[in-house]
Structures are given as C-alpha cells and as structure tokens.
Amino acid sequence: MSRPNFSIGFGVGILVGILGTIALLGGQDVPRARAQDQATTPGLQQRYQISSWAYPGPGAMHGAYILDTQTGKVWQIRAGGPEPVGQVK
Question: Which pLDDT value is given to residue 51?
C-alpha cells in the first residue's frame, strides 16, 4: 500500500485557498480606510485634535492634550483622568 504524500496535500490546500480568495474578492478593489475623510463625507468637520507626550526616567509620566476645535477648550489626560487646562482664544 502506498502512503499519501504530505507535500501534495499541502500544495493542493494552498492552491485551493488562493483560488478561493480570488473567487470571493471577485476582482473588486478594496478601498483604503479613511477616518472622517471630508472629501467623501460632505459637511463633516474634524472637531478634536490630540497630542501625546511622555518622558522616561525616575517619576516617568505620560499623557495627552486634547483640543476641541469648535469650542477652543483644552484638556490634559493623565492616569487620574481628564482635567481641563484652559481655552484657546
């Protein structure tokens, strides 16, 4: 009796997987992800901007600043949670 060859089964499995992927995609272009793209969503305006910061060493800290571009309010985010910093005029 002959034993089945592992490499033939593996090769056939890879080939079936590739052909199945091509068949499921159907030649369609997959669009790139766009987060709040104003070009594709009219009237959408970016409201928040974020800037992170960190410094290493003894007493190392990290956090971020968040700016609300509609109201001008600024918050600082640290381990304790958000706290208002001020307002941009």
Answer: 92
**Residue 63 and residue 76 in contact, taking contact as beta carbons nearer than 8 Å:** yes
Query: Which residues does 50 contact at the CB level (< 8 Å), separation at least 6?
Result: 64, 65, 66, 67
CA distance 3 to 69: 70
Structure token pair of residue 17? 């997987």
- The single-letter DSSP state of residue 36 is S
Task: Read off the pTM.
Answer: 0.48
**% helix / strand / coil in the chain, to the nearest 5?**
20, 35, 45
Helix (H, G, I), strand (E, B) or coil at 22: helix
Could you tell me whether strands 48-55 and 81-87 are parallel, antiparallel, or unpaired per DSSP bridges? unpaired
